[in-house]
């Protein structure tokens, strides 16, 4: 058993709204003795459940904190998370480091060059062949490596599926091809819809839990899209007799065979 004392709200703290409602983020443990408090979005937490939930988001690669309760996409400011989770000095340091690393990975598409072992940023996201300027200068010839298998490039280019190295494959496309069908609990008349989709805006793989409506907000680009027809939600909603929990007028989009490239400047 952990010797750490449980975090506990002070019910006399005028900056915290304590309530008698159930903790809505107590998804791993039960029996927290702290009073419950309401976040700015209206959902109820304890400092321990909030800490665990935010740690879960950071482990998933998030750099911001979104409520995520049903139909709630409110982003909590870090200052609110820090206060409401009663973060210790050690937790603050860990959270802030993880947030910075995740933000860097999200906004700067970089990998380690297999030749010089330095970080290289890809300029053209639709081409797997990437030139390393340091290796090119050191070797006296053009040195390019595969963004996918991280080996020196073989074969023609530009290409966005694979190079000619043995075993090079697009794991994301393999996942889209082989993932099981979603088991929608609340969306009617939708069968044989893949449980994993590539976001139509940025290409990030997103999984549907099957419990909410058919729309989902991508954690990377923050664009909401329809998991069934793969249209941006604003476009899907233009259909007559639109239903959040029903089949789209255009039907179910087929399994994706390519990954959309995020055009960040558009």
The helix/strand order is EEEHEEHHEEEHEHEEEEH
Q: For the CA atoms, what is the radius of gyration?
A: 23 Å
Helical proportion, percent range? 10-25%
- Low confidence ranges: none
- The termini sit apart by 52 Å
Count of individual domains:
3
Number of strands: 13
Would you write up a description of this structure?
Helices cover 22% and strands 13% of the residues. The strands form 6 sheets. Strands 1-2-3 form a 3-stranded antiparallel sheet. Strands 4-5 form a two-stranded antiparallel sheet. A two-stranded antiparallel ribbon has the order 6-7. It folds into 3 domains: 90 residues, Herpes Virus-1; 61 residues, no CATH class; 97 residues, no CATH class. The protein has 266 residues and is α+β, with helices and mostly antiparallel strands. It holds the Pfam family IBR_1. InterPro entries: TRIAD_supradom.
């Amino acid at each position: 058993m952990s010797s750490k004392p449980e975090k506990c709200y002070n019910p006399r703290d005028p900056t915290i709204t304590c309530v008698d409602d159930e903790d809505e983020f107590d998804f791993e443990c039960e029996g927290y003795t702290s009073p419950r408090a309401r976040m700015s979005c209206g959902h109820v937490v304890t400092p321990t459940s909030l800490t665990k939930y935010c740690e879960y988001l950071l482990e998933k690669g998030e750099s911001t904190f979104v409520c995520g309760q049903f139909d709630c996409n409110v982003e909590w400011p870090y200052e609110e998370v820090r206060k409401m989770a009663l973060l210790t000095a050690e937790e603050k340091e860990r959270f802030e480091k993880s947030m910075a690393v995740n933000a860097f990975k999200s906004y700067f598409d970089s990998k380690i060059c297999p030749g010089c072992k330095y970080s290289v940023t890809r300029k053209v996201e639709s081409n797997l062949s990437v030139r390393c300027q340091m290796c090119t200068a050191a070797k006296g010839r053009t040195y390019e490596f595969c963004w996918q298998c991280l080996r020196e490039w073989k074969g023609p280019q530009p290409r966005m599926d694979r190079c000619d190295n043995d075993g090079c494959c697009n794991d994301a496309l393999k996942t889209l091809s082989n993932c099981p069908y979603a088991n929608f609990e609340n969306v009617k008349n939708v069968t044989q819809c893949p449980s994993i989709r590539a976001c139509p805006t940025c290409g990030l793989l997103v999984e549907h839990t099957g419990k909410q409506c058919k729309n989902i907000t991508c954690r990377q680009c923050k664009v909401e899209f329809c998991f069934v027809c793969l249209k941006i939600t604003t476009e899907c909603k233009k259909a007559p007799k639109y239903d959040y929990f029903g089949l789209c007028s255009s039907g179910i989009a087929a399994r994706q065979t390519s990954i959309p490239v995020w055009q960040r400047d558009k």
